[in-house]
Design brief:
single chain, mainly beta, Double-stranded beta-helix, AIM24, Trp_RNA-bd_attenuator-like_dom, AIM24_sf
Length: about 230
């Protein structure tokens, strides 16, 4: 019994913490969601690692099937609908988790970085304007808007760049891009010389240039789907 108590004390720091918000981090790489009846959740299929209470899952619900035709190879984010009461824990292969509480706001997220969001939020797959000539068929993101919670993932600790601090544009490797404010202006930039500095591809390099008032979330590890070059 003494040995059991000693072990429990050693593991106490990893125990679930009291609920303080609809979504919050448990450590850097796990998301804790306080589930309640009538407050459904969309989450990445396969992201559930544990749950307490009564939680049910519906893979590929009708709302997702309606959007399915718009997903492109490398951009798909298969979703499940989660309902019930309890605590739900989600993760994505050890990636960092960032919780965002939207207040009548919007966020455009790379589909591969979208972990979960409140089902009552408005959402849809949208083509990124100004990128079609660089990306073949174009670049698609998931735009989430309204008032509620969104959880995104990042391969490592992300940096959030405030694009409203001056007139200069912010340039980002599209394979390292996680999310951005939809009201930002976006355009593509092609450069041979930048290929050795931005990204790891050889030959012609592409960057996304952001301007206006808003934020851009960038991860320190490039997305393996190679978002632009697979469509070129």
């Amino acid at each position: 019994m003494n040995a059991m108590n000693a072990m429990n004390q050693q593991l106490a720091g990893y125990a679930p913490t009291p609920v303080t918000a609809r979504m919050e981090n448990h450590g850097r790489a796990m998301l804790k969601v306080a589930m309640q009846s009538g407050q459904d959740l969309f989450a990445r299929t396969g992201s559930m690692v544990a749950y307490e209470g009564f939680v049910q899952y519906e893979p590929n619900p009708p709302a997702v099937r309606q959007m399915a035709s718009q997903w492109l190879t490398g951009e798909g984010a298969p979703l499940m609908k989660c309902t019930g009461d309890g605590l739900l824990y989600l993760a994505d292969y050890g990636a960092d988790v960032v919780c965002v509480n939207l207040n009548n706001d919007a966020l455009s997220v790379n589909g591969t970085n979208l972990l979960a969001f409140d089902a009552h939020l408005q959402w849809g797959v949208e083509r990124v304007k100004g990128m079609a000539k660089f990306a073949g068929q174009g670049l698609f993101n998931v735009q989430v808007s309204g008032t509620g919670w969104v959880a995104i993932t990042s391969r490592g600790t992300p940096i959030v760049v405030d694009c409203g601090r001056g007139e200069d544009e912010t340039y980002v490797d599209p394979d390292a891009l996680v999310a951005w404010s939809p009201n930002l202006k976006v355009k593509g930039k092609r450069s041979f010389k930048a290929s050795s500095m931005i990204g790891r591809g050889s030959g012609e390099a592409y960057q996304m240039a952001f301007s206006g008032q808003g934020i851009v979330v960038v991860q320190p590890s490039e997305d393996s789907t190679d978002r632009l070059r697979t469509r070129g």
